[in-house]
Every structure is written in C-alpha cells, then in structure tokens.
Amino acid sequence: MKKHTLLVVGAGMVGHRFCVRVRELDSEGRFRVIMLGEEPHAPYDRVNLTHYYDDEDPTSLLLAEPSVYADTGIDLRIGCRATSIDTARRIVRTVDGKELAYDDLVLATGSAAFMPTLPGIEKPGVFAYRTIDDLAAIKAYASGAKSVAVLGGGLLGLEAARAMQQLGLTTHVVELAPRLLSRQLDDAGGKLLLRAIEALSVRVHLGAATEAVLGNERCEGLRFKGGQELKVDMVVVSAGIRPRDELARSAGIAVGDRGGVMVDDTLATSAPQVHAIGEVALHRGVIYGLVAPGYEMADVLAKRLHGREASFNGADQSAKLKLMGVDVAMFGDPFTVKEPTKEVVLHDLVNGVYKKLVVSDDAKRLLGGILVGDASQYGTLVQVARSNKALPCSPEELILGKRDGGSDVTLDDDAQVCSCNNVTKGGLCTQIREKGACTIADLKASTRVGTGCGGCVPLVTDILSAELKAAGKSISRELCQHFVYSRKELYEIISVRGYRTWEEIVEKIGRGEGCEICKPVVASILSSVYNEMVLEHDTLQDTNDRYLANVQRGGLYSVVPRVPGGEITPEKLIVLGQVAKKYGLYTKITGGQRIDLFGARLDQLPDIWEELVGAGFESGHAYGKALRTVKSCVGSTWCRYGVQDSVGFAIRVEERYKGIRAPHKLKSAVSGCVRECAEAQSKDFGIIATEKGWNLYVCGNGGSKPRHADLLAADLDDETCLRYIDRFVMFYIRTADKLTRSSVWLEKMDGGIAHLRDVIINDSLGLASELERQMNALVASYRCEWTEVLKSPAHRARFQHFANTPAPDPSVRLVSERGQIRPAAWAKEPAKKPAPKRRLPLSNRRWVPVIDAAGVPREGGVAIKYGEVQLAVFHFASRGQWYATQNMCPHRKDMVLARGLVGDDAGRPKVACPMHKKTFALDTGESLSGDDYSIATFPVQVNAGVVYVELPPAAALQDAICKHAEPCDIVEAAE
Known about the structure:
5-stranded parallel sheet
C-alpha cells in the first residue's frame, strides 16, 4: 500500500508536536512523515531558550534525541530550508535543489524576531533573540561587553533580559509602552512587576521611543526620541515577532494584511491540501504567539488527517510564566469590554502580590484575571473562567480562601488541580471512584499529582476526603503506610506511653522501616515532648534539621543567627559582615528582620557557628519547623505614636519560645500601636499594643494564601498575654496535622475561633494547666543547637561532605551577581522522553575499601570520594543491609543523596533526595516517584569492620556517570 506523504515545513515545537501526534494516531502505518527544519538543530524547546546559558549545551533543550525520530518513523531533515511551493504539482523545493512531493503539506514555519527599521540596526553588537544560534552569537560578543539594552518589555524581552543578566551584563530594558507586559497586565500589575524587576538591578526605561543605534563601527548605545542617549556595549532586540509566511505568500496562498497564513477552523489554507499551524497561522484574524494554542492546532490537524472530527475554534491566551523569578499569570479576558464588569483586587505591596479578578456585573461568572507575585491559584482560576459557569463561591474567596476554611471542591471535572503534571479534578475522581484510590500515595502513583512542586497536595487531600465521604467510605487519617495514626494521635501515644526512640516507636505502634514522611514527624514530636538535642535523632531528620541550616541550591546551606525582636548592636552587625566576608557568603536582610548568610559548605558550618556563638549569637532555627522570628516596630521607645514597648516585649516573646518544635513553622510580631507597622495580624500569633495593654491575634498567614488573624483576647497585661500564648502554641502542637500552618488548623477546626477561644481563655477542655506545664518544661530545657554541636566532637565530626576525606564538594558552581555570589542556575529539566541507556563498565571490577563501617550512621548515609566520582554509602541497619549508589540526584544534579532519609516503600528500600523528595530504590536505582530518572547502584559488603564496594576503575566510572547530565536508565555492559 502506498503511504500518504505528510510534508511538514518547520521543525519547531508545534511542528514537532504535530508529527508526534500523527505517529501516535497512525496505528495502521498509513503515513510517511517528513519534517524539514532550516536550523542545524533538531526541534528544541524555544520557550525555555534562556536555559541555553545554564550549560551552553544545545542538546539540553532538545525535545527528543535525534535517534528517536528515525525510531518512530519521522524523517527529520535539519539544515534543509524550503525555498518554494508548487501547489499545482504538490511539490516543495529545498535549498539544495531537491523537489519533495507531498499529499498533504503542513506549514509550521513559526515566526521570526521583529527587527525595527532603525538607523544603525545592522551594526555589529545588535542581535535578535530568537534561536540557539542567536544566543551563541550573543554569548560570544558579550565576552567583551559590560552592558546591554534589551529592546522590548514584553514576554520575550523580559526573558532576554534574564539571559543577559546570566551573562553578567549590566542590563537595561527599553519599552515603548508605558508599562511592562502591556498586553497582559494592567497599570497596577505592571507597576508591581516593575518594582520586582528593578529590585534585581535591571534598569527599565518605559515610554522610550528608540530612534537610532549609536556608534561608528559597532554598537555603542541608543538614542531616544527627545535626544536622550543610553550608552551600552550591545543591543538585543526582542520586541515582537512576525509570522514566517514568505513561502505561502510567494506560492499565492492567502495571507493576512498584516501577515500570517489565513486558515479556517480545519486549519486549511486557500490552497488545496495545504494547512498551517502555530505562529504562522492567522485564524479568525488572530495570530497566537503562545505555544499552547499551537499545540491545540497540531492536535486538531493530526486528528482531521486521520479522518476524525475536530476543529480549532480559537483559544484563550491564558498563560502562567516566571519572568526573572517573578510569577506572572493572565487568564480569560481581564480587559473585556463585551459586558459590564466588576473587579476584586488584592494589592499587597508588602509581599509583592497583586491579584485581580474580573467578574460579570452580577458577580456570578469569572471572566478573567491577572496574577503577579503569586500565581499558585492559576490552575483553578483559569478553569473557572473557561467554564463560564456560576461561581462556586463569592468572588473574593477565590483569592482569599473560604471563610469557613473549607476548600473549594465544587469545580468542574476538567478543572486543573496539578499544573506541574496536568492532572484534573475529574482524573483524580476517576482514580478514586473507579480505580479504588484511597490515599494520597495512591493518587501520586497513578496520576503523578503532587510529585512536582507539591503545592496542590492540600487541594488533592480535600478532593480525596470529599470523594471518600460521598462514597460512604471512611477517610484515612493515617500518617503514611508505616503508621495507622494521625499526627495528633501519634503525639498523644508517644507522650502518654513515654516512648523516646524511633526504634521503640516503630516496633510498638508502627510497621516497616519508615520513610521521609513519618521520620521527620516522629522527630518533631520527640522534640516537642522532650526537647532533646535534635541530633540525638539525626537520621530521622530532614537535611535542614540534621545539619541545623537550610539547604540551598548546589547542596550549600544558609546560616541564620537569631536576632530577637530585630534588635541588634553595631558590634554584632560588624561580626556578621566579617563572617560573611571571611567565608565568601551571600548576605540578605529578610522580611523577618534577620540577616541570612547563604553559600556555606557543609564542612564550614561549625566554624561559622563558632565565630557567631563567640559574638553572642544563637541559632535562629530558620531550618526547623519552629519559631522563626518575632518581628517588631520600635514602639514607645522611639516612635511618637507608640503606646507600649514593642521591642522589649518582642524580645521577651522570642526568647521564651525560641527552639520550640511545632507541626509547621511559627512566625510572630509585636506592634507598638494600632498603626501595625510590624504586621502582627498576618502572623501565627501577633500582638498589638493598646493604651491598656496588648491585643492578641492568632492564626494569621501572610504567605501564598494570606489570612487575617483573629482577635483572641484584648487589653491583656504582659503575663496574661504570655500565658495565653503558652496555651495556644501547645494546643496547636498537640492537635495540628503534619505540616499544617496554624491558619489552616483553625480553618478546619470545628467551631473555629469561638471554640479556640473557649479552650484557651475559658479552659473548656480543662487542659489549661497541663498546656502551661508542658510549655514551661520546653522553655526550661532550651539549648542552643549550634552551641551543642560545638561542645561535642562527635557531632562536629559529622559536618563534612565526604566521610573519607576533608575535601569540599568540587561540583558546586558559583557565579557572581550584583557584587555577591550565588549558585549557578539549575539545568532545565529535559522534556519527557524515553531515558537513554547509560552503560556502566562490567569487567575489571574489584572490591574497593571505602570507609570503616563505624563511620556510617545507622539508618543513614555518607558521601564517599572515589577518584573524581562521588558515591553514597548507606547502612540500613534495621534491615541488616548496606547499599551504595551515586551521590548525584539526577533531578537537579546536586551531590546530596547521601544526606537523604532512608526508608521503605511497601518493603522496598529507598532513599529520598533531601532537595525535592524524589525517591529511588536503593537496590535497583529506579525512581519510585514516577519520574524518568534512575541512579547507579553498586554491590556492598562489610568485612572486618570495613565497607567494600564493588567498583570499576575510577576513571571508567567517572566517564560513565559524571559525563552524563541527563537522567537515564542504567544498564551494565561488558567493556
């Protein structure tokens, strides 16, 4: 049977998607697919083009390995530009003089960068920003430059500006419009984005009409209308796109007045058997510059060519982006003039968040919206807007949350719950109703929901609970597969029975060996009950608590000393500066009135603490689920409006509750008057001065889902206020679920604030004296954890990257930015595709002694240096097993697996990466998180107290592991 030839001109993202969909639908093998690309690269991810500068490896952007095309029956011809179309003969001519016949032709030629007709635009030093080759040329030229101007303040321009900053250039953004993202944002949203970008040391020039590129032999700057000049060494143009319609135009195919190949709802052009998709297609007068509508076109056309009913009826241009680190989203039609509208606006300049919802005049339908600074609700909001149905709640609850604390699970089944993995509510409900999913773990395994950023897990939990309840099934409150109890129940059992060790707890009331969920919970409970040094249970702790510092990119840590109430002497400020300078740390003043020191290596932590403790500092517990800060204004000591000493009381509060572990972090603040400069009403517990004493507010949250705190009691004296806080914090510790902020705890509490007030003030449960006693015991047993490490040679010895050498981690890459250091950007996660096989040497292996067995903690791991390769060795003592793997987590390529928590998944031994909780089987190396990752594993044995690992020569292993950045399947093969 003669095959039907599909000729696709254009090897971009949309062309690639079309070819893949055709092949997926072509079960009978009817089609011959040819794809022509004029660039010398296989189809790549142009949306994430900026990531080219992460490692300057074009292959990291590829949508698929070149070999995949041949394997799937796609004849990819790169570096092959089409020059003309003969629609009568159905022939396409290429630059090398060949003629290719087609049965159906698909134009997916995309668009080109718009280059304005300015005097001097052709000068050396002026570049378009559109292709990999453009970025390579920019990088080469930038090596001799110090500053750059990016023409364009839209989506493309801001992406280009981010890339220029990565090159270390002083960056200017020049935009003709009066605001950034003029097509996506309103004035308020644009101003907030402007503030965020200028805070990154990018100079933005709005309303600037460029008249010429300055310079004689090369670019030396820009001249604006009005005569102003901007001196820069190079110019990058990213000011819009123009459809690549020249092939169609020369062939007599209809194009729009302003460009674009005209198509109907079937994606057909005016020429028979010729179609157009993506940015070159003009549909109902619209050219779509986003990839999502292009993908929809590709899917529709692939179905039609297979004889299925499908049509493209237009697409909304909703989009969620991260521009220079700032979340920005636009959905629906926030600028609609089709009908009368009303607006709901949250404008939070303190936290840099702007949310605007546009609803119908009767407030029944969501028409569109804008999100800046926090786009976490985008997935839900875009689905509500698309449905055009009556809102499930009042409009303000869509961005502020429900007043009764319940989550909104009345969305349509097509509402997107997990944007990372495109999981809908309907998909979850199907798994629960028809597939028998009863736990979050079941849903993660079957749909991958919550395995990305994890931000959707609370909503997933509520959907699961609602579905199980509707089906008449009991709702499991089990902590995880190892404990049938909730955190609250586990707390009571441990405290009443007096259990003090993990081994005793898991033997008496648990099962298996534990996991990354239950081990930190048990460690937190033990701390809340007995307040022992956390390192007594170090292998139960996440990396932050295990090493008493916050892990950051590259496996480095941040050090945050406590500054009670934000009050600090000049002498202590000088010490912080000296320490930061000595150890080369990045410094930042936080919103909680503390100074963070970033970039410390694991082996440097005790030395840094020693200098800080010697100057009178203590641990700030920024690493723990504990009290973080008690923020304060200057109060009556300095402020003309202050009515109480807010600084003094804040210091007293912070000194009392420092170090106390809780289900989640705790934040507090004390304001000296009702002007509320310390923002106490956005804290877990906040205190505001009155003429008569203090008003105590509880359960506020200033995070991604802000919640105004509730007034618990008014006009309190110091002692009464502290007594109520004692009761409140202990009641929260005893009854909240794991990783639950106090705001969510209260919202889900039966009776809400009235019930809480009864418990805390009226002692309705008869617990007041017990809660106070427990708090007093915790306060009395406080010890600075940094100081405890410095006192113990055994604890201090654990703080080194390698267990068999004092050398630091050589893989950490730091770059300079605004006069300080930061970790090099993570490489972009590769597109989902079959993992290539990595072959490890099989012959010439030998048993290599790597470390004394006593140097590996029970139920934990250590990193080992073997030549230039990093290995992780684990002692899973409760199983009587030893394991060895590579130390690099393949997700973000950081050398941190040895610091992960070991446990089991339905009996299978595993380790959880401390960075993002990706889990891997210790015996086989395969991912247990449903990802396309795997790790290398090696046989281990222990003889005469020495750990031996069966390994090939170090050089061969380095070549097999260290030269592969991409995730891969690992197989053994003879050399």
